[in-house]
Design a protein that fits this description.
Number of domains: 3
CATH architecture of the largest domain: 2-Layer Sandwich
CATH superfamily of the largest domain: Ribonuclease H-like superfamily/Ribonuclease H
CATH topology of the largest domain: Nucleotidyltransferase, domain 5
Largest sheet: 6 strands, mixed
Helix content: 40-55%
């Protein structure tokens, strides 16, 4: 809290000839010391002027109108910080450096990097947003098979055919895609990836799959990852690279893992009372459910997966190739 800054002590130690660095060693940050001295100089206040005043009055004289819960430091536009973090290569470290340079030029108090990071996280929490530290718009897609399946029902014999679900998610916007298939073979996997890129309307530089054999032949703890040739060629055709998540490290593709769980409710459970005779019929119903899922408002923040995707991510996707079927054998 701002009240904890010992403004009177700073002025006294300064009057005794201590340097700013020496004053800061008395249990205060260098930024706090600089802020007090800057405020005192701006108002022409010396220690002799406030020697008989209580600490609270000294603080009020240097920082009039600032309540206990107001920050001493000049605040950046946190909304702009949040938007900038969506861009490739932009980090909190970079943004703090730009903030520091601007505040220094304006001769206003500057918060340190740790406080800057904590303040951003607090902004994200209060605003109900998703932190953008770690995910960049249009840079990766996570893909996997759903462990849960669906079924087609023959209208004559009532026999059932298992249907598998390919699930994809763009981690930045959480925009999702689901494709039903009759098997999990290599050609099916490739076609599902093609359908995914068509759904998104573009491609991304990185595809993050699980270590399934249709995409990854070997992923040793140490050594080179061996990719399935057909999958590697398809990814290259879409100007992408395949970067599998580490073995038994679900957090490497946490977004799609979360989406798979949601799909169990949004798609499988929601359609459980309906029967489908053909894959095309089921696909249409699934697409409708996924569209609703993407358009549904976030529970803890403004917007939806659809709105974030369209406003901040779609334009950053790479153009689709002219011939989408190349690489699918």
């Amino acid at each position: 809290m701002v009240r904890k800054i010992k403004a009177k002590l700073v002025l006294r130690l300064r009057s005794e000839g201590l340097s700013r660095r020496q004053i800061a060693k008395q249990g205060m940050s260098r930024h706090s010391v600089d802020a007090v001295i800057a405020a005192a100089d701006a108002r022409g206040v010396t220690f002799d002027d406030v020697a008989v005043l209580p600490d609270a009055d000294v603080y009020e004289r240097l920082f009039p109108g600032r309540g206990e819960h107001h920050s001493l430091y000049a605040q950046p536009d946190w909304g702009q910080v949040h938007r900038e973090l969506a861009k490739v290569g932009v980090t909190l470290k970079l943004l703090h450096g730009e903030y520091r340079d601007a505040r220094t030029a304006a001769r206003t108090p500057v918060m340190g990097y740790d406080r800057f990071c904590k303040s951003y996280q607090q902004y994200v929490l209060v605003a109900g947003l998703a932190s953008r530290v770690g995910h960049k718009a249009g840079q990766s897609v996570e893909v996997d098979w759903s462990g849960k399946t669906m079924a087609l029902t023959d209208p004559v014999t009532a026999s059932r055919t298992r249907v598998y679900l390919f699930v994809a998610c763009l981690p930045f916007s959480r925009y999702a895609f689901v494709e039903p298939t009759l098997d999990m073979k290599q050609d099916t996997w490739l076609r599902a990836n093609i359908a995914m890129f068509s759904w998104f309307g573009g491609s991304v530089p990185r595809i993050v799959p699980d270590n399934l054999k249709t995409g990854v032949i070997a992923h040793p703890a140490d050594g080179e990852i061996v990719l399935n040739d057909a999958y590697r060629e398809l990814a290259a055709h879409y100007s992408a690279a395949v970067l599998p998540g580490r073995v038994r490290k679900p957090k490497d593709k946490a977004s799609v893992e979360n989406t798979v769980g949601n799909i169990a409710t949004v798609v499988i459970a929601a359609l459980r009372h309906r029967q489908f005779a053909t894959l095309a019929e089921l696909r249409l119903a699934i697409y409708e459910q996924v569209n609703g899922y993407n358009a549904a408002p976030f529970q803890k923040r403004a917007g939806s997966r659809q709105s974030v995707f369209e406003a901040e991510e779609k334009a950053l996707l790479r153009p689709l190739p002219a011939h989408p079927n190349r690489g699918c054998r």
